[in-house]
Amino acid sequence: TDTDNVGIDGIDLVLDSSLTGEDGWRKLERARLSSELLSEHAEEQPPTHGADVALTIDMGLQCIVERHLEAAVADHRPEKIMAVFMDPRTGEVLAMASRPHFDQATRRGVRRNLPVTDRFEFGSTFKIVTLTGGFDAEIIEPDTMFYCYNGRYEDGPITLTDHRPFDYLTAEEILMNSSNIGTYMIAKQLGADAVHRYAKAFGFGARTGIALTGEVSGLVADPESSTWSGVSESRLPIGYEVDGTALQMANALCAIANGGDLMKPQIVRSVTAADGQAIYRFTPKKVRRVASEAAVDKVRRAMIATVAEGTGKKAAVEGFLVGGKTATARKPKADRATGHMAGRYVVSFMGFLPAEDPQLAGIIVVDDPQRQGAAPVGGGSVAAPIFAAVATEAMPYLGVSPELVPRRAARSLPTTAQAGDDEY
């Protein structure tokens, strides 16, 4: 709010009329010397207090996220860092934080709410869209095999590389190993128009409509646009020539976690008048179905494999199956048409748990983390551990019981297999 207590940003601006209330007034008569006179014309209207607005934000979870973002800033010294955690079943935003941020005490800092105002190219997290399209169109199955050209693919103007050489991978292994070449092989069968259509179905290129100021829509390369180039068909499927917000990607993740429904992200739980009368109560709002339940389930299985065996191992949370996806996207130059910066990245990890009944889904985005010695800078090495740290605290806080029991701790149970210490 400003110095007159008028909302100028965020919820305070969006719901300013509800929060403000109405001033009271008195109509009276005075004598020449300004003394008040008793009068039959006197009137009085008492002030009306503003309504109470309750958010979907869970302050306990918010504190957990804030604390781990602070630690990550100290460790990685990024240009920016963002986090969004949601209930995938309802679309409620449970925690949202970013750095740099605005200090309420000093009234200094960045006032933008970065997860809704700042765009970034998604990179490999976007591969869930391509894979979902392939499964939904029934052109692939999880065990469909693709040749990945041992890490380098060239075809005319198109050149693609992988972070390490792969020969043959199944569709599921393409996601869990984050193969650019394999993802493009799937996209070639699906077609550029279909990849674009699924991207729009997941909500990319459009504002979510959350009740916060400054939300941007982002961009999705369109095969019908004049900006579509000879390499666009290979870039879009792997998360380039498409950008948006952390909130958009978290919401797309929720559609995978909940079985295929794109929900409207919501941050207002209720608006209640001063007399206790309900003005608004939160109800989940389904936007559309992004794909068949069978297709989404196959993607979810591939994301579980990504954390169990693939690039997302450092996002594992003891006692839980976690589904997730890493991304290490080259950071674009200020003039995006001139390409990307050398050696600078926007890295991210998004995940959900418990994987069999997801109750929490979230994304961590780290913009331009600084290299720590010889350690690699990537979504799996930088963002995934932050997610794991948040989720490890969040599960007991939210009252979610572990779904996996270490065999070593459960050997007295007659139904528990006896092979190997610490296996799950």
Q: Which class best fits the helix and strand makeup?
A: alpha+beta
- Poorly predicted ranges (pLDDT <50, ≥5 residues)? 407-424
How much of the sequence lies in strands comes to 15-25%
Radius of gyration: 25 Å
What's the mean pLDDT score?
91
Residues in helix, %? 25-40%
List its traits.
disordered C terminus; 29% helix; elongated; three-stranded antiparallel β-sheet; 424 residues; 12 helices; alpha+beta
Q: Could you please describe the fold and organization of this structure?
A:
This protein is of the alpha+beta class and 424 residues long. The protein has helices at residues 10-14, 16-20, 59-76, 114-117, 127-136, 171-176, 180-190, 192-201, 232-235, 246-257, 293-309, 379-397, and strands at 25-27, 29-30, 36-37, 43-45, 52-55, 80-87, 92-99, 102-103, 108-109, 120-121, 145-147, 152-155, 158-161, 168-170, 219-220, 242-244, 261-263, 268-272, 278-281, 286-289, 323-332, 340-353, 360-367. The protein has a 5-stranded antiparallel beta sheet, sandwiched between helices. α5 crosses α8 (192-201) and α5 (127-136) crosses α11.
